Structure formats: C-alpha cells, structure tokens
C-alpha cells in the first residue's frame, strides 16, 4: 500500500525524537560563573582549608558566592554574577600566592539524572563563553646555554678521542672557553673545532702562561637554536592541550620568541594552565664517583623530603634528557608503587645503552627540573606593598637506582610520590619536552559580557530566520507547510542533541552554520512539495503524487546535500578556528536535515493521508 510506513519505522522516529529532546535538554541549564583553584603540582593537597581561605577572602571583599566544592584535584567556588569573576580571581590569587593556580571556569548546572546518562550541554567557543588568553615568552637564552653545554661535552669527547690534552673546557657568558697548557695543544684543538664544529667562531688569546680559545656561536647558529626552541615548545604545548581534551584551542607563534594560547572558558582552564605552565624536563646522570673532582660533580637534593640521605652527588655530564623520550605511561611496580614506563627514540636508546653497558653496578640518577616563579610581597620606594615575581630553577633527584644490566630504549622510573604525580610526569614526557623554559608574559580574560552579547545576537538571528521560514511555509504550503515546520523544529532539537553528544564546540560562525542549515532543511521540503504539485498538475492521483514526489525528489536532494557535505568536511579537515566552527554545525546540520526533511515529514504525511481514499491535497497555492 502506498504511503504507509511499517510500525518499526514509526517507533524508530519516536525513539530518535525522545532521545533528541533528552540530550538537548542540558543546553537549557545555564552554567554558573565560577573560580577554580588547583595545585601547581599534583602533590599539593587540595582540602577544606583551601576552600576556607578562599571563601574568607571573598567575604572580606564583599563578593557573594555559594556552592563551594572540594575534590581531590581542585576547589570550585560558584559566583552569583559573572562580572565578579575577574575580581574574585585576583583576590583569591593574592590570598593563596604561588602554591595554587586560580582560573576562571563555568560550573555546570545540569541535573543529576541527565549527568547519569552522560547528557551534557554543548561546549562554547572562546567567542561565546569567554575564556583565557595566555601570552608566553620562550627563554631562548636558556636554550642557547643548554646547547652550549652539549657542545662542550661533545668537544671534550672529540679531544679525548684525538688524544689532545686540555686544562679546562666549559660554557661561560654565552661562549665556550677552552684552556690549554701548550700552544701546540691549542692549535690542534682549533683545527679540530674548525673541521668538526662549523657553528663556532674562534678567538685565541694568552694569559698567565696559559693558552685560551673562546668559541662563539655564529648568528645563523643562534637563530637556528632559537627557532628550534620556539617551534619545539609550540609543538609541545599543542600536544599538552590536546592531551587535556581542551576544545577549539588556539596555539600559535607570535613574533620571534612568543607563543599565544587561547582556551575556551567552559574547559577546565585551571588544569590546563597548570600543565601548560609546567616547564619541566628530565636529565639522566650517573652518580659521581667518590674520587671525582669538584668540577665533574654537583650536589642535588632528593624530591622526596623523607629520603635518606637527603642529597647525592651527580656527574655534570648528561647522559640524555627528556627530549629523547618517545613515549611514557604511568603504571605500578611489583610492590604496587607508582612508576613511569619510558620508551626512548633510537638515538636516546643508543646513548643510554652505551653509558649503562660500561657502568654496571654504578647508580643512575634521574633529575627532575622545573622552571618556576615565586611571588613575594616587598615594599617599594613609596612604602607601598607590591608583588615581586622571581624566576628560579628547581632541580631535584626523583630516582637513584643501581644499574644491574645495560639499558636500551625501554626502562622505568620509580621513586615517585603518588599515582597522580606519575600520571602527570608521563603526560609531560609523552607530550614532549620543552626545548627552553617559558614564562607567562600576559594573562588576559575574554569577558563573559562579550560572549553573552554574541550569544544573544546569534540566537536572535536564528529566531528571526526561523520565524520567517515558519510563516512562509505555513502560508504557502498549508498543511504540508505545518508538517515541514514541525520537522524543522525537530531538526534544531536534533542538531543541538548531536552537537552535545559528540562534544562539539559551538562558536559564532557555528551559529551562522545553524542558520544556513535551517534554510537547507526547508529547501529539501520545497523540492518535495514542488514535485508533488507537479505530479498533481499532470493528473496523477494524490496518493501516487505523494509517493512520486518523495521518491523522485530524493535524488536531487541527496546530490545537493552530498556536495555541500563534502565541502563541509574539507573545511573541517583543513580549516582552523572560525572555519572549523562553521564546518562542524554545517556537517551535522546536513545530516539531521536530511533525516527530518525526508523521513520525519514523510511519516507525518503518511499518518495524515496514507491508506485513505483522497480526492485532493491541501498543498498550497497552484
């Protein structure tokens, strides 16, 4: 029989409609503006005392707040007014200083029963929700100094291989200074450097019966090191943000040595800031022999304050650094203590194997290096209390284990305080080591008022377009227009549900994509209705006209939507930022409009006319 769906199709449509309304519902619950507090390290305790201090500081400032929540990772304080977020953040930061990361967030208000079925609202992009803008500066001078240390070790090795004696070789003030007792030794060393290390310019001098050679990097070499440091840090930051699952992030280079990071406010920005600002690396060094000279060794404390002894001497020579780590994962050893499983690249594995093979029964230390800042309150010349930020490097031993056999590309690090610390260290190593320290130059918040205005204007544009389409379809196509309007309304609900279920991010260009989707959905119905009217004008019976209208218009609708979908997918694949935001809603909208314009309207038409002996159709003006 024409124009009759089997029962299972109607049940399927009802199920899809029901699920769509359920999963679109969370978008009706506006989130609360909030301030989130996290520790600068996973080892810092987050407890009720942190909440108390933060809450009391807000009370003294007269900022109303509610719903303080404490978890193992952070404290979340909800505010009544979005305009208070920036002030609350500054007040709490002044109270807690450097031990904690204070960031803006949006706290969800989704009911528990929706949370239980993983129904959550759409994520909003930076242009709608507001968010955080970071400007970081790469310390390229530190990258140069680090490279000079490596060059210094390589030059020493080459000289030893060539049996050229030297008194001293070390980096100093952006140069490498080499000291020789005989001029002949310096001549041989200069010849080797000229042949093997073309990056350097040589300056020779004599003083106090000693012969010196200063090696200075050329401008080209300096620029190459700086570019590598910035690009490596850029890649590492992107990897870290991706590991955190932050939606629609912007990470890009600005100028010669700066990086811009923008994160939408709906995300866990406190956690993101803590990981981004975690400027950490590893160095693997052998424990110094008891008879080693003072120049060849250096004393470091253990990171575990309960370790006995509390410090140890490591060689200055670095075996490998965290740059050679290709993969890292957290796990547990045979005693259920946290550990990090390390995989090295081929070069790192070769260096580790060569070193450990020749040093069985010696101890290998793992040095954890963090570049930090500390804030102190000092008095300026006018007697005012001001905050002073100081940069410093914290180097602590996290592991010092005896080498039992030659190590290769895979081994493990133990001696960590907690599983959280092991997971964090694995994330940092897996995402890539920073080639140079980075420091926050600017932290700027995109105000929520701008986002609210954008949302209001975007919603208004959708409402106006939607209303005009509804009126036109109802007036021109009458009952069939009513069917199209119902399907169009359901299309928007289905679109919102799909965007929420796939955790897509809605941006201002994405709203433009929704407006376009509304027009495309109606266009499909117009094609179908026009085809039905054409069949009726040709004298075809109403039931046959309905069936032919849907069947013959399908090919045209499918072709038109397929070409648009291909373009949307291309935009999604190669576009960035606003382009991707538009492509996401367009892609999802095409699929949902195909379903509603063809399947849902056909179901309503079948229910109204299927199986009936009808002489005419209320399908609008002819």
Structural write-up:
The chain is of the alpha+beta class and about 625 residues long. The protein folds into four domains: about 180 residues, Up-down Bundle (Multidrug efflux transporter AcrB transmembrane fold); about 80 residues, ACT domain (Alpha-Beta Plaits, 2-Layer Sandwich), CATH 3.30.70.260; about 80 residues, Gyrase A, domain 2 (2-Layer Sandwich), CATH 3.30.1360; about 150 residues, Gyrase A, domain 2 (2-Layer Sandwich), CATH 3.30.1360.200. Strand 7 and strand 8 form a beta hairpin. Helix 12 crosses helix 15. The protein starts with 6 loop residues before the first helix and ends in a 13-residue tail after the last helix.
Key traits:
48% helix; single chain; 4-stranded antiparallel beta sheet; 6-stranded mixed beta sheet; Gyrase A, domain 2; 622 residues; 4 domains; 23 strands; alpha+beta; 15 helices; Alpha-Beta Plaits; Multidrug efflux transporter AcrB transmembrane fold; elongated
The name of the CATH superfamily of the largest domain reads Multidrug efflux transporter AcrB transmembrane domain
**What's the multimeric state?**
single chain
Sheet bearing the most strands, described? 6 strands, mixed
CATH topology of the largest domain: Multidrug efflux transporter AcrB transmembrane fold
- What proportion strand? 25-35%
> For this structure, what is the CATH class of the largest domain?
Mainly Alpha
**Number of structural domains:** 4
Q: Give the terminus-to-terminus CA distance.
A: 28 Å
- Total count of strands: 23
> What is the C-alpha radius of gyration, as a whole number of Å?
33 Å
Strands of the biggest beta sheet: in what spatial order?
A: 15-14-20-19-13-16
Q: Do you know the CATH architecture of the largest domain?
A: Up-down Bundle
Helices and strands: which structural class? alpha+beta
Global mean pLDDT: 82
Helical amount: 40-55%
Q: Estimate the global geometry from the Cα principal axes.
A: elongated
- Total helices: the number is 15
Uncertain runs are none
